Amino acid sequence: xxxxxxxxxxxxxxxxxxxxxxxxxxxxxxxxxxxxxxxxxxxxxxxxxxxxxxxxxxxxxxxxxxxxxxxxxxxxxxxxxxxxxxxxxxxxxx
Length: 94
Hints:
Layout: E1 2-9, H1 13-22, H2 24-29, E2 32-40, E3 43-53, H3 56-63, H4 66-75, E4 82-86
Antiparallel strand pairs: 1-3, 1-4, 2-3
């Protein structure tokens, strides 16, 4: 399992969210285990998505998909999203 964080600026959060929700089946079939969507308090168009994936390879296949690229254009993403691969810390109990 691997967690990822994706940050992106969008033109309109509502339109982006509708597109994101429409990709639910595609995300799940690509290996997504869970996700959480949030945005900045004073800027709802600054979107952050945290996902858990079956594997790093599953995430890489998903993120490079032509279907995702087309959906991103429709969703109104203003610039290339920033993707981060997160790691678990041994001291998460603190």
